[in-house]
Amino acid sequence: MAQLRNKQVILKDYVSGFPKESDMNIVDSTITLKLPQGSNDVLLKNLYLSCDPFMRNLMNKPQGPPNPLSYTPQSVIAGFGVSKVLESGDPNYKECDLVWGFSKWEEYSLVPSTQILFKIEHTDVPLSYYTGILGMPGLTAYAGFFELGSPKKGENVFVSAASGAVGQLVGQFAKLTGCYVVGSAGSKDKVNLLKNKFGFDGGFNYKEEPDLNAALKRHFPEGIDIYFENVGGKTLDAVLPNMRVHGRIPACGMISQYNLTQPEGVTNLAHVVYKRIRMEGFNTADFYHLYPKFLDFILPHIREGKIVYVEDIVEGLENGPAALIGLYGGRNVGKQVVVVAHE
Amino acid sequence: MAQLRNKQVILKDYVSGFPKESDMNIVDSTITLKLPQGSNDVLLKNLYLSCDPFMRNLMNKPQGPPNPLSYTPQSVIAGFGVSKVLESGDPNYKECDLVWGFSKWEEYSLVPSTQILFKIEHTDVPLSYYTGILGMPGLTAYAGFFELGSPKKGENVFVSAASGAVGQLVGQFAKLTGCYVVGSAGSKDKVNLLKNKFGFDGGFNYKEEPDLNAALKRHFPEGIDIYFENVGGKTLDAVLPNMRVHGRIPACGMISQYNLTQPEGVTNLAHVVYKRIRMEGFNTADFYHLYPKFLDFILPHIREGKIVYVEDIVEGLENGPAALIGLYGGRNVGKQVVVVAHE
């Protein structure tokens, strides 16, 4: 049986502090494109790989109870992706099926079929969308905003990392709900996107605001009902005193803290008591049962152009490490995707 | 009409930092024990006054939107209390009714009847209980633990300020629910109370633990499902990494922070995301509709001796300021009550 080159992204060692491109290696491995006899696994050709902030945490040396997803030094890293089934030992999948789920950063992957989350049924939209608006980040925005945020028409919504994979959707969902929505992002161009592309009512560049509290007061003179939390740290600390009574904080991520060996202290938590705030961390894995309902909601909006999605696409697995690292410095504009193969 | 002496506790000025007894004055005012003609108010004889941590916040110079309860310099302070109705302009109350609600720190008070929360119907239990187990703190423990905590049999519960007005009840509710419960308190005697009086499975003196994280790991090798938050700051920071997935943190108060001009920073909030924790501040005022249900639950337990309650009672309004200040240094053992008059 012929062996094929299988380019891979390997984590050299556990990472402490800010990750660097050199923490990863590109290696050429080989693979036989044939399922081992009797295997129930699925052989995938990876098409699009997703760069997601949570991947940073998988690079840490595990402390306490092990995370089953944590990366192992000298092994291929893993993440969400869109793949084509080459061969399946699980009767639920067959050759040429398109799927999305948890795959590996390599050209071809042999994975347990349980790592496939969903078969892709709708292909009149860009396939890369299944790493973003139609994948985990889309469901994240949907579950976090609607299920945890419990938004009501006329409420005031603040989103951090607002032009990112999740944030740009939260803003658009907020507008569809009749909310006032303002986002923060890390460049003038991103702030322009918020207002001109995604329909936010306002936005600010947090890097150019000497006083985040003042920026929030300027945009929310009457306070914030829902803060969709993507960054943590200083932004969260500035938000807390600006929350309204019975405010909600769906805590999707705290990307500003992931690379710090000593996280920043949040001093304004007493406002959680004073304002009766509900702050709730969540993991999209707890909401996969909503995926069909989510698709019914979002597909028509995409087709009618009522919801847009900005992707930052790089070509080639060899450019994956730089793209992934770029997330933590905010280099990406919109959802960061790596193309491994177009089909 | 004869005028009567009306002893009062006056706040001298707004307080910054740790409050002192000398921030308050005891003065002799006078009052005519007759409702003004046409008034809808209620004239009360105050019997028991409640010392509650939140009162510290009312002493602050108001910043931002005013709190209608905030104290005014040179005026009588206010708080929860048990009172006897002397005369009522509201037909819902009549002479000799016993009531509990928001009253003032003085012998006699003329208050709008809306400040009365409930008429006291059950007097086979100590009347002072309506400042504690049968009053706001009791309902606080009930709503916070059962409504926000959603406890399940077998879960692990941690309570801070565990021998206090609310904490001692949370621990007993946890045991009634079949949970494992450990509390922290600020003296050896209080920790003994937890175990010997309230039936906690364990407890520790946070002042004698060099490493709160280690203390929690010792008592909760498998982690914490519910943290009933009364103190904030360092304790909260140590708790967060010890929470289990889908843990709940009803945030009742953060007494350790109330007297700090610069609050402590909480660095471990990313665990809210990692562990999908729900942290929720609450105010008992949102749960008064549960009070009848709460009484149905708790009165039989009190009468059968299945729930006990420890009070720290001082005699005389003139000793009120010291009792109130004592809360913030943890001088009280159990619910701090001030007796103004026995009937």
Automatic annotation (TrEMBL), chains A, B:
Keywords: Oxidoreductase. The keyword Oxidoreductase applies. The keyword Membrane does not apply. It comes from the Eukaryota. Residues 165-298 form the Alcohol dehydrogenase-like C-terminal domain. It holds the Pfam family ADH_N_2. Transmembrane segments: none annotated. SUPFAM superfamilies: GroES-like (SSF50129), NAD(P)-binding Rossmann-fold domains (SSF51735). InterPro entries: ADH-like_C, ADH_N_2, GroES-like_sf, MDR_fam, NAD(P)-bd_dom_sf. Residues 7-115 form the Oxidoreductase N-terminal domain. One of its GO terms (molecular function) is 2-alkenal reductase [NAD(P)H] activity. This is 2-alkenal reductase (NADP(+)-dependent)-like.
